[in-house]
Amino acid sequence: MILNENLRKLFIATLGFDEKFIIRSLIRNGLSNGDSILIFAPKGYLQDDKSSKAAEAIKEIVTKILPNVELRIEEYDLREDFAREIHRARSLIQNYESNEVIACLSGGMRALILGVISALMTLDGYRIVIEIEFENLENYLRIPLHTLKIPYNNRWLTILEHLESGKSIRAISKDVGLSAATISRIVNEMKSYKLVDEENQVTEDGFFYMKIYKKLFR
Question: Among 17, 38, 93, 128, which one is least packed by beta carbons within 10 Å?
Fold first, then answer.
C-alpha cells in the first residue's frame, strides 16, 4: 500500500444534529483552494430541522472562509444493502483527485460512521486520518488509519527508533549491523508510506506506527 504523491485533500464528515464538530475539524485542518468537502448524512436526515440547520450552517461557513473549496452533501441509505452503500461511498471518494483524506467522524448515527469507516478501510494508496472529538470538546483523537494497514516489521521499528534519537544513516548502520546502503533502502521504503519525511525525520504517522507496534510486540 504505497502512498501516491501529494495531490489534494478530501475532507469527509458524518452529519448529525450539530455542526460544531465538523466546523472545528475544518478550521483545524486548514483546507486550501482545490480541496474538497464530502459530507455523508443518513437518507431523510436533511428533512429534519436540526440536521437541516446544521447542514446550512456548514454551507454558510464554508462559503465564507473556504469559497474555493467544493462542498457536497451525500445521503447514505442505511436501510438498503449495507455492502452496496459501502461500495457507493468508496466510489464517491475515489471520484476526487485526492490522496489525503481527513475524516471527521464525531457526529451522526453509529451505523453511518461504521459505513464510512468500512469504505475508508477498503481504500489503498491514500493517507487517511480519522478525527473524533470528545463530547465535551476538551480534546480529540487523531488516528492515521492507513498506518494500521502497514504490516509489522521489526527492522523498520528498530530503524525508526534510531531515527527518533537523531542518529544518521551511517550511525544506524553501525548499531544494527547492516550496510548503509541497506539502511538507506529501508528508509526510502518507509518514506513511501509516509513514516519518514524527506529529511529522515519520523513523521506523525511514523510515531503512531511505533507506538502501536511497540505495545503489541515488545
Answer: 17
